[in-house]
Amino acid sequence: MNTAVAHGHGPAHPPTSTGQTSYKLGFWVFLGSETLFFGSLIGTYMTYKNESVVGPFPHEILDIPLTTISTFVLLMSSLAMVLALDAVQRGSRKGALTWIMATAGLGATFLGFQAYEFTHFYHAGLTLQTNLFGSSFFVLTGFHGAHVTIGVIWLLALWLDALKGKLPPSRAETLEVAGLYWHFVDIVWIVIFTLIYLLM
Amino acid sequence: MTEHSQGAHVHGGITMNTHAEAHAHSHPSWKTYVMIGAVLTIVTAIEVAIFYIPALEPVLVPVLLALSAAKFFLVVFYYMHLKFDNPIFSRVFFSPMVLALVVVVGLIILFKVIPPGWVAG
């Protein structure tokens, strides 16, 4: 099999039977496995819902207005992400730098909200060991927060690439795959916000 | 023509698009992205408003699940481009997602719907 197709700019992949790059297809397979990962955590939370025998209970501690704002922040980060991809595809370095940093910044802001929430819950007496709600809540939202953290680091690395001029349109797929990860983190939060917060 | 919209190449009978072309096809414009962002914001505001209206409590679960699903699919189809990309991406993503959904619903039925001790008889 030929290993490369050199056409002037950027790296090339060998041909595949699907006509799609293995990088993108492989990443979609990874995201498919992630649905099972978060599905198991959400299923565990739903199983233990209303089974705690000691407080604090969800209705006593969950802050809907605060979480609504953090949800809005994460949704807007997804918008910034697609605008970053659009900028890279158009060859706009300035647009790429602006929107990639905006996405990372909004992601970091979301993490700030989560850190505040976790700290508040800890001071209110809810820990990983307190009750079934605490265990399943912290594991689910903690893993989601870890995913957001990885996404922010990934985006900052891509921002540095863009700063050095190493993110031309021919490498747009690199940012597109990072975007897929970011949007996935967003859709997981869409589900968490509804099931854990609004349907408490 | 932009740098990223150049042609396809044939290797061993298989057509292989350049990276750039793969990205250029049929993705929405930035205006569509902004419009989707506005819709996502409005739907989230509606969800929270419904949460605070006591009269809507009987229909809270189905309405919130429907609105959440709408947001989910808007992001997946437009921001993640599944509406425009090769169907194979949809298959490899939605197949395990359906399995995950079956697991969640199965757990809820086993632990929340079936009475304790019913299986053991």
Give structural notes.
The complex is a heterodimer of chains A (200) and B (121). Chain A has helices at residues 22-48, 58-61, 64-90, 93-123, 132-163, 172-198. Chain A is mainly α. The longest helix of chain A has 32 residues, at 132-163. Chain B is mainly alpha-helical. Chain B contains four helices and two strands. Chain B has helices spanning 19-24, 30-51, 60-79, 87-113; strands at residues 8-11, 14-17. Chain B has a two-stranded antiparallel ribbon with strand order 1-2. Classes of the chains: A mainly alpha (200), B mainly alpha (121).
Topology:
The complex is a heterodimer of chains A (200) and B (121).
Chain A: H1 22-48, H2 58-61, H3 64-90, H4 93-123, H5 132-163, H6 172-198
Chain B: E1 8-11, E2 14-17, H1 19-24, H2 30-51, H3 60-79, H4 87-113
Antiparallel strand pairs in B: 1-2
Helix pairs in contact in B: 2-3
Strand order of the largest sheet of chain B: 1-2
| Order of helical and strand elements of chain B | EEHHHH
Whole-angstrom Rg of chain A: 20 Å
Strand percent estimate of chain A: under 5%
What is the averaged pLDDT score of chain B? Answer: 82
Main sheet overview of chain A? none
In short:
Chain A has 200 residues and is mostly helical.
Summary tags:
heterodimer, A: 200 residues, mainly alpha, 6 helices, disordered N terminus, B: 121 residues, 2 strands
